[in-house]
């Protein structure tokens, strides 16, 4: 006996119920025990930042990770299931600053670095717990007590080791270079972080400024700028040597193409202006002392905006800085860390924005302003705090990418990408990547272990805590963890002069933290496993993760598979590759699945401030985890996902079909007292099966093959589509066509349906773990010999499906679909029986004539030529294409134009070619008295003539339908018997008494008064 199912699933309730069951029955632990000796499937988790609750876009990635881990587990693979948390760096600092109300680096320092570090750790501890809870609710199975945290001393030591290696190879350097800078965060922004930030539409000043030429009385260059704050740092003006420049009557030099309506008194090539000197607009400033302003050549001067003459300030722009190296220009850097003007530039302490007004006033007062206005343009902002970015020249630490670039490209070429074209995206990124800017002038991050000695002119890099301890001069007793401020209090002895060396103040780019995990979490080169050895420093008490040994690393490295969103090409995929290729010369992963962005259901980005963001808890509440997972898995990964409650509603509607089919089974199995056999799941039911049963068994085998292929390709969308089609076939064909047999308690039908339903649950379980488990409990668990969880049942056995039978039924369904559409076009209800159906072009359907007759409610089905008034012939492209080649177009046109001759045996002559019946698709439209429908070479024609008997039979079906509706409306059970009363007007239907009684479970039929039913 199965427990009866309610009309609709209560996702929230049964998901919580399943979670409690898994917990209570240790299902996940038992699965791991079961697979302990299985083949390894190595997955390495890209860490989620433990800084905020998780968002629905995180849920997408985490679902995909869980789906494939569950699939591999069902296939018997042993896995690590280690979740990772990213814990340090700017993102954590910025949130902690906000919560403490601190708004500058000075305020952080006043607050105290030790306290600040503790607040950061507390935030990580809090949100790693929140994210864990949310991930469990999503159904994610991970080894939750043994997560890796990137801020642990162990992880830090591994990065130190990498940095020492990089230094020994001569790749590490301190760069004096122009860098993108966030004035609020007070740190530089690396190339990959720049891409992660948003370009905002911002309004900036637009100034045209005169630079008077020396020795050329009355002549000036005119330049254009949108960054007035850079003018006090101007040292040169660049022209395009190839372009034409003209001198206007007002004495202004412009590129000719920028002033097409002007008359020029003189025109010269830019090259002729090169070398001229001019008076800078701020020559009086101390910072400008000794600077000689010159015109320089630059091929990249844009001629599509401004004046064609570019003001150059090497201390305030990347390209300007590069030009300063070529032309030996002075580098004047006007901004401090907070983006305020430095002394010597005339506007001490003003921000780059505040300085715009006074600079404009100064220009106007000195007759240097040609014109001014504003411009709205796209401008980069900080990816963390949204502040507009500036350029600064600073000292930063870099790792040269030159030597590693070809090795990383070679390693990437061996990686299998899903979808495949992303391999090229990765390659493009690697080809163009700049040197890796690894330093941040911040606090709670990886302490860069660089100890410069000025006397020896060396940089010494510490590669481990042990090395630090050996060389420390003092301060080890206060070294709580490898973080600022504690680490800064441990000076070391110089290995050259013995002098006291202090660490540089910088911390590391957070992508170093995440990039090392394929080595650090797996115990690379660690001589012996250390229990809880990963949980040192800031990670102590947060996790019990072990530090495995090198033998373990060899077993699990490289990852068989990783998965993150596409922007990680520039971030995590890049950093793990960089670090592993450096240390080992190999990629840390063999396959990778990447996917696009999550948008709202209308296709806009989700933003809290726009009111269209969906919180993950709200999604659990309102749609349920399974529906979310389905939404993620149904998405082709190369396209943006439009996520929302609208699509969720549609998914619920589709899943209801599965639910209804299951409920149908349960209801009739209970009536029949049916008991399934667990062994049936191995190869399907045997014994006395009818053609439809055999078909559904083959259809189920096909489902197993299709979903397996989808998962093996790491494309959930393929598995979801296969399942969706299967449920449709099961519900709208198999069950509908077999209804009567279920009413009769037919054992073969019940066995077949149970097998098909349960196999369906098994293959979709990775995507829908809750619904599958819930229904497994209902349908399978009570069966003798059955495992108590769908996840302990393994993957269904694969059997080759009988293609012939599947193709036959595909033809049947094509005929039936056309039959229904022909009925519709003639406005003939299905309940009205018809005399005759003629089918042309679906030969495989002939074996199932009865099925077609019954489904379409026709008395006779004939296979043959449809006699029609109009004949349409199309080329069968897969066959004719290769045969005809270039001629195909002409043949197709001739056929479409009716320019052909019909020969015997379904052959046609066209343009001198004779085409066989398999080379063309023939469709016919009907004559008077026939309803015809045609598609893809199949044509059906329904005889629409009705005689008295057909009309009477139609009324019988109407009556049965009406009575069964009344049964439902009056809440009768499926097995309740009734006495049926029909009105006198229907007395002529009594000839069909037996059929009416059996279809309505009536024990007696009376003719009297009004239509009525009474339960006996
Ligand atoms: Zn910022
Ligand atoms: Zn020294």
Would you write up a description of this structure?
The protein is of the alpha/beta class and 1016 residues long. The protein has a six-stranded mixed sheet with strand order 11-9-10-7-6-15. A hairpin with a 6-residue loop joins β22 and β23. The chain binds zinc ion (2 copies). One zinc ion binds next to loops. The site of one zinc ion (ZN) has 7 residues, from loops.
Unreliable spans: none
Q: Which ligands occur here?
A: zinc ion
Which strand order does the major sheet show?
11-9-10-7-6-15
- Note the total helix count: 32
Shape: globular
Structural class designation = alpha/beta
Q: How many β strands by DSSP?
A: 40
The end-to-end distance, rounded to whole angstroms, is 25 Å
Largest sheet, in brief, is: 6 strands, mixed
Mean pLDDT, nearest integer? Answer: 94
Helix content: 25-40%
Radius of gyration: 38 Å
Q: Report the β-strand fraction as a percent range.
A: 15-25%
Task: Give a brief outline of the structure.
The protein has 1016 residues and is α/β, with parallel strands linked by helices. A 6-stranded mixed β-sheet has the order 11-9-10-7-6-15. Strands 5-4-16-18 form a 4-stranded antiparallel β-sheet.
């Amino acid at each position: 006996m199965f427990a009866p199912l309610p009309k609709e699933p209560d996702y929230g309730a049964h998901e919580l119920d399943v979670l409690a069951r898994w917990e209570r029955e240790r299902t996940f632990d038992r699965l791991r025990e079961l697979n302990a000796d299985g083949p390894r499937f190595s997955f390495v988790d890209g860490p989620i930042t433990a800084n905020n609750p998780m968002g629905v876009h995180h849920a997408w990635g985490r679902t995909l990770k869980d789906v494939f881990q569950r699939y591999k587990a069902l296939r018997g693979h042993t896995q690590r299931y280690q979740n990772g948390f990213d814990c340090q760096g700017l993102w954590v600092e910025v949130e902690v600053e906000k919560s403490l109300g601190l708004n500058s680096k000075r305020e952080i320092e006043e607050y105290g670095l030790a306290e600040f570090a503790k607040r950061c750790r507390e935030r990580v501890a809090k949100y790693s717990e929140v994210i864990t809870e949310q991930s469990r609710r999503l159904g994610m199975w991970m080894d939750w007590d043994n997560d890796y945290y990137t801020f642990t001393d162990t992880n830090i030591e591994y990065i130190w080791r990498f940095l020492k290696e990089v230094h020994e190879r001569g790749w590490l350097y301190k760069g004096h270079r122009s860098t993108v800078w966030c004035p609020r965060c007070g740190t530089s922004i690396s190339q990959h972080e720049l891409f992660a930030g948003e370009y905002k539409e911002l309004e900036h000043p637009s100034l045209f400024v005169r630079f008077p030429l020396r020795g050329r009385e009355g002549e000036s260059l005119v330049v254009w700028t949108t960054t007035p704050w850079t003018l006090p740092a101007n040292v040169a003006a660049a022209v395009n040597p190839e372009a034409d420049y003209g001198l206007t009557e007002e004495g202004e030099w412009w590129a000719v193409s920028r002033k097409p309506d002007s008359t020029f008194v003189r025109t010269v090539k830019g090259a002729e202006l090169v070398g001229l000197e001019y008076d800078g607009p701020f020559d009086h400033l101390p910072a400008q002392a000794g600077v000689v302003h010159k015109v320089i050549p630059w091929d990249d001067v844009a001629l599509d905006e401004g004046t064609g003459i570019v003001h150059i300030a090497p201390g305030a722009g990347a390209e300007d800085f590069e030009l300063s190296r070529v032309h030996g220009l002075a580098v004047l850097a006007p901004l401090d860390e907070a983006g305020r003007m430095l002394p010597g530039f005339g506007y001490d302490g003003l921000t780059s924005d505040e300085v715009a007004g006074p600079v404009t006033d100064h220009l106007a007062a000195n007759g240097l302003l040609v014109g001014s206005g504003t411009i709205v343009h796209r401008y980069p902002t900080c990816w963390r705090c949204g502040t507009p970015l500036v350029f600064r020249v600073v000292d930063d630490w870099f790792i040269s990418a030159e030597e590693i670039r070809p090795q990383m490209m070679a390693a990437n070429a061996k990686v299998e990408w899903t979808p495949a074209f992303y391999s090229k995206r990765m390659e493009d990124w690697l080809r163009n990547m700049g040197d890796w800017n690894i330093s941040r002038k911040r606090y709670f991050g990886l302490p860069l272990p660089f100890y410069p000695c000025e006397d020896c002119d060396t940089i010494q890099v510490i590669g481990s805590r042990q090395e630090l301890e050996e060389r420390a001069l003092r301060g080890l007793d206060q070294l709580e963890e490898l973080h600022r401020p504690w680490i800064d209090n441990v000076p070391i002895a110089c290995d050259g002069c013995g002098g006291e060396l202090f660490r540089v103040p910088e911390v590391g780019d957070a992508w170093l933290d995440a990039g090392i995990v394929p080595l650090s979490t797996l115990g690379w080169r660690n001589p012996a496993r250390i229990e809880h050895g990963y949980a040192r420093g800031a990670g102590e008490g947060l996790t019990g993760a072990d530090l495995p040994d090198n033998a373990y690393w060899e077993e699990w490295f490289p990852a068989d598979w990783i998965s993150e969103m596409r922007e990680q090409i520039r971030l995590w995929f890049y950093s793990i590759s960089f670090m592993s290729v450096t240390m080992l010369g190999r990629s840390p992963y063999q396959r990778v699945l990447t996917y696009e962005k999550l948008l709202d259901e209308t296709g806009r980005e989700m933003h809290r401030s726009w009111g269209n963001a969906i919180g993950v808890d709200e999604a659990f509440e309102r749609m349920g985890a399974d529906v979310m997972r389905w939404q993620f898995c149904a998405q082709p990964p190369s396209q943006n996902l439009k996520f929302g409650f609208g699509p969720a509603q549609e998914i619920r509607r589709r899943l209801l079909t599965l639910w209804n089919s299951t409920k149908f089974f349960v209801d009739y199995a209970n009536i029949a007292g049916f008991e399934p056999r667990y062994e049936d799941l191995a190869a399907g039911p045997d014994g006395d099966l009818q053609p439809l049963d055999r078909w559904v068994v083959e259809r189920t085998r096909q489902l197993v093959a299709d979903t397996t292929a989808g998962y093996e390709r790491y494309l959930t969308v393929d598995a979801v589509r296969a399942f969706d089609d299967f449920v449709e076939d099961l519900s709208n064909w198999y069950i509908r066509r077999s209804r009567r047999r279920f009413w009769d308690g037919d054992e073969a039908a019940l066995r077949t349906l149970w097998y098909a339903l349960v196999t369906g649950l098994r293959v979709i379980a990775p995507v829908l773990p809750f619904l599958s488990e819930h229904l497994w409990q209902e349908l399978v668990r009570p069966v003798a010999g059955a495992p108590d969880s769908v996840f302990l049942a393994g993957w269904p056995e694969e059997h080759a499906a009988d293609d012939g039978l599947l193709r036959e039924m595909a033809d049947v369904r094509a005929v039936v679909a056309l039959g229904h559409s022909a009925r519709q076009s003639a406005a003939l209800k299905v309940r009205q029986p018809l005399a005759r159906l003629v089918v042309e072009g679906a030969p495989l359907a002939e074996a199932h004539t009865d099925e077609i007759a019954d489904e379409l409610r026709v008395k006779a089905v004939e296979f043959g030529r449809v006699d029609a008034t109009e004949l349409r012939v199309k080329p069968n492209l897969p066959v004719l294409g290769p045969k005809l080649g270039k001629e195909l177009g002409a043949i197709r046109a001739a056929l479409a134009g009716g320019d052909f001759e019909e020969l015997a045996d379904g052959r046609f002559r066209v343009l001198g070619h004779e085409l066989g019946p398999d080379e063309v698709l023939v469709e016919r439209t009907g004559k008077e008295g026939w309803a015809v429908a045609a598609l893809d070479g199949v044509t059906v024609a329904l005889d629409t003539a009705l005689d008295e008997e057909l009309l009477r039979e139609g009324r019988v079906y109407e009556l049965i339908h009406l009575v069964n509706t009344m049964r439902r409306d009056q809440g009768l059970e499926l097995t309740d018997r009734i006495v049926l009363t029909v009105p006198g007007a229907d007395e002529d239907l009594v000839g069909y008494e037996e059929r009416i009684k059996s279809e309505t479970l009536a024990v007696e039929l009376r003719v009297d008064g009004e239509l009525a039913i009474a339960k006996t």
